[in-house]
């Protein structure tokens, strides 16, 4: 127990240091971009990025991180912070020119997030993540990475040539709720504790291991549904809006007509 606490304190120090460094690098870039009118990053974007880092710190380096070995609900809160809350806030706050310009297929993003969710909740893999500090770090990193992948097609922080119809994003979000619903429903309605590692832990917050499991499943079920519902509502409002962005776009000039006018002034009227 003392070894775990010591290792946890050391891990919290390094995670906190990395997040502070990331925030300083972001602040330096934000101040530099604010000097250029065309590359200006709004203040709300900086706040969004900072809040995303705070959620990562809460999940990995705060006192909450010390409870994930004892309370399944605390463990589930970690996953929600790393996969559902922090990624969209970070992507919304990232300056466009500081991101790598890559094209990510939504199917890959969906399967990566769903795969990480399912695999890490297999009881044997789940136990491995709790008993090994190395695998626990890999687990948390995979949740954050796949969370960023999942939210990329939704937030779309970079313009790219691969445009996905907005109705397909609604289907993307709806299908994403299915693995969470199945897993959380199983945890809520199961009549036994699925993860034996919590059976030997002390009764925390007055919850038995089974009640803790049911609380964790209900928390994931509710939080994921609400967040995805908000994102889907935003896309639905954009679809139903009478002033769509493409309808108010600046018309493009016909370059052939302009070239013809300059090359042959006498044909300007004919053109």
Percent range of helical residues:
55-70%
Number of helices: 10
* General shape: globular
Which structural class do you get from the secondary structure elements? mainly alpha
Beta-strand content bin: under 5%
On the 0 to 100 scale, the average pLDDT is 78
Task: Please give the number of β-strands.
Answer: 0
Runs in which pLDDT lies below 50 for 5 or more consecutive residues are 1-7, 245-256, 267-271
Q: How are helices and strands ordered from N to C?
A: HHHHHHHHHH
Q: Domain count, please report it.
A: 1
Biggest pleated-sheet summary: none
Radius of gyration, CA atoms, in whole angstroms: 24 Å
Span of the ends, CA to CA: 84 Å
Describe the structure.
The chain is mostly helical and 271 residues long. The chain has one domain (2-244). The protein is 69% helix and 0% strand. The protein contains ten helices and no strands. It has helices at residues 2-34, 43-60, 63-66, 72-93, 106-119, 123-131, 133-155, 166-189, 209-240, 255-263. The longest helix is centred in the first third of the chain and has 33 residues, at 2-34. It is globular, with a radius of gyration of 24 Å. The protein starts with a helix and ends in an 8-residue tail after the last helix. Mean pLDDT is 78; it is low at 1-7, 245-256 and 267-271.
């Amino acid at each position: 127990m003392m070894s775990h606490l010591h290792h946890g304190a050391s891990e919290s120090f390094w995670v906190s240091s990395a997040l502070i460094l990331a925030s300083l690098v972001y602040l330096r870039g934000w101040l530099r971009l604010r000097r250029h009118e065309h590359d200006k990053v709004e203040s709300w974007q900086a706040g969004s990025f900072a809040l995303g880092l705070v959620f990562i710190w809460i999940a990995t380096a705060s006192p909450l991180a010390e409870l994930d070995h004892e309370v399944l609900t605390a463990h589930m809160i970690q996953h929600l912070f790393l996969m559902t809350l922090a990624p969209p806030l970070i992507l919304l706050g990232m300056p466009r020119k500081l991101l790598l310009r890559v094209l990510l297929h939504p199917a890959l993003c969906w399967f990566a997030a769903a795969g990480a969710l399912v695999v890490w909740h297999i009881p044997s893999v789940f136990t491995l993540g709790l008993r090994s500090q190395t695998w626990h770090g890999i687990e948390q990193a995979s949740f954050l990475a796949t969370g960023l992948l999942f939210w990329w097609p939704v937030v779309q922080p970079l313009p790219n040539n691969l445009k996905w119809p907005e109705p397909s994003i609604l289907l993307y979000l709806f299908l994403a709720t299915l693995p969470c619903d199945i897993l959380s429903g199983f945890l809520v309605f199961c009549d036994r504790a699925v993860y034996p590692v919590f059976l030997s832990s002390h009764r925390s917050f007055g919850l038995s291991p089974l009640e803790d499991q049911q609380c964790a499943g209900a928390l994931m079920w509710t939080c994921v549904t609400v967040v995805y519902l908000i994102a889907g509502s935003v896309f639905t409002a954009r679809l139903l809006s009478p002033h769509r962005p493409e309808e108010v776009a600046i018309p493009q000039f016909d370059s052939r007509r302009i070239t013809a006018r300059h090359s042959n002034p006498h044909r300007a009227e004919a053109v």
